[in-house]
Structures are given as structure tokens and as C-alpha cells.
């Protein structure tokens, strides 16, 4: 059994120790923010934070991270108030959204280490691929997130765009058999 912490919760996976972290998160923990993109660690869609470092979860086995602290996009800020999340929304970065969780996690790690990154720092730290090609907006969003984090700029986050999971469950109508009709 492999044990570590995910989003401040201790987890014990009864899975093959060679299981990639991505699949443990998605299949066993239902944390689907990290995406399967290329499967070989090049695209960055699966990026999560492990002990403060940006890591491609498709290339990391659960055995390799025994005792570590993992943060996924779901654990970064449930209310979406992390400076990177605020800047991403304010700068209209999302298009298809597939790469966004991995990009946000890589940017959050960068800003933890460097509160005033240059454009080159951002390009070096964010090697994730964005198939929509919104790189100029991503760079500006990271710079804006740095300003927010430093207190040089504020953004009114407004209400959380999400819905309470319990409320969402009540909105889904029960499936009833149609009797083949």
C-alpha cells in the first residue's frame, strides 16, 4: 500500500506501486483536473505539485512519491482565488481548457520560487504545450499573477464560478428505465 498526502488529505492507494500518479489521482481519487495528454511527460497537461515542485504525474509512479505532499489543481484553491487562477480568468486565457490545470500548477510553482519572474523565466518554467496557442496571454497572466501575489495589483474575484457538489447532485435527474421505448 502506497501512502502520501493529496490536497492535505492522507491517502493510501491499494494499487500496483508502479501505477503512474496521474491514474491514481484520476481513477482512484476522482481528481480529474490533471489530464492525460501525451503519456510521455512532454505536454505537461498532467502537471501537479509534489513537495513544491512541478512534476509530470504521468511519469511519476506512486511508489516513487511515498510520504510526499501532492497538490492538484483541485487543491490549489477550491474557491479559485489563487493569484494564478485569478489572473488566468482576468486575462481570458482559457480556450479549450485542456492544458489549463497543468499550466496553472507550473505557474504556481514558479511564483512560489520567483515572485518577480521575467518573460524568459516564465518561458523556461512553463514548458507545457497549449494547442490553442494562447502563449502571449499565458505569459501576461503569469506576470499579472506575480503582481497580485506581491500586492501590486488586486482583482475582484467575485463569487466562485463553481457549484456546491451536494447541490449539483440534486440537480441531476434520476435515470429511470424506459422499458425499451
TrEMBL record:
Sequence ranges assigned to domain 2Fe-2S ferredoxin-type in this UniProt record: 1-76
UniProt-listed CDD domains: fer2
Keywords: 2Fe-2S, Iron, Iron-sulfur, Metal-binding, Oxidoreductase
Pfam family, one: Fer2_2
Coiled-coil ranges per UniProt: none
Matches recorded under InterPro entries: 2Fe-2S-bd (IPR002888), 2Fe-2S-bd_dom_sf (IPR036884), 2Fe-2S_ferredoxin-like_sf (IPR036010), 2Fe-2S_ferredoxin-type (IPR001041), 2Fe2S_fd_BS (IPR006058), Beta-grasp_dom_sf (IPR012675), Diverse_Oxidoreductases (IPR051452)
The protein's name: (2Fe-2S)-binding protein
Organism listed in the record: Sphingomonas oligophenolica
Amino acid at each position: 500500500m502506497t501512502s502520501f498526502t493529496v490536497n492535505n488529505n492522507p491517502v493510501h492507494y491499494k494499487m500496483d506501486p508502479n501505477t503512474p500518479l496521474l491514474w491514481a489521482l484520476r481513477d482512484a481519487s476522482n481528481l480529474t483536473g490533471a489530464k492525460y495528454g501525451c503519456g510521455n511527460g512532454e505536454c505537461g497537461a498532467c502537471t501537479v505539485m509534489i513537495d513544491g515542485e512541478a512534476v509530470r504525474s504521468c511519469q511519476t509512479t506512486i511508489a516513487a512519491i511515498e510520504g510526499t505532499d501532492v497538490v492538484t489543481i483541485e487543491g490549489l484553491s477550491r474557491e479559485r482565488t489563487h493569484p494564478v487562477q485569478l489572473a488566468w480568468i482576468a486575462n481570458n486565457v482559457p480556450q479549450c481548457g485542456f492544458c489549463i490545470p497543468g499550466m496553472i500548477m507550473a505557474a504556481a510553482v514558479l511564483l512560489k520560487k520567483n515572485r518577480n519572474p521575467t518573460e524568459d523565466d516564465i518561458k523556461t518554467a512553463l514548458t507545457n504545450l497549449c494547442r490553442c496557442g494562447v502563449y502571449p496571454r499565458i505569459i501576461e497572466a503569469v506576470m499579472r499573477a506575480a503582481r497580485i501575489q506581491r500586492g501590486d495589483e488586486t482583482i475582484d474575484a467575485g463569487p466562485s464560478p463553481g457549484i456546491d457538489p451536494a447541490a449539483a447532485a440534486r440537480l441531476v435527474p434520476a435515470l429511470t428505465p424506459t422499458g425499451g421505448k
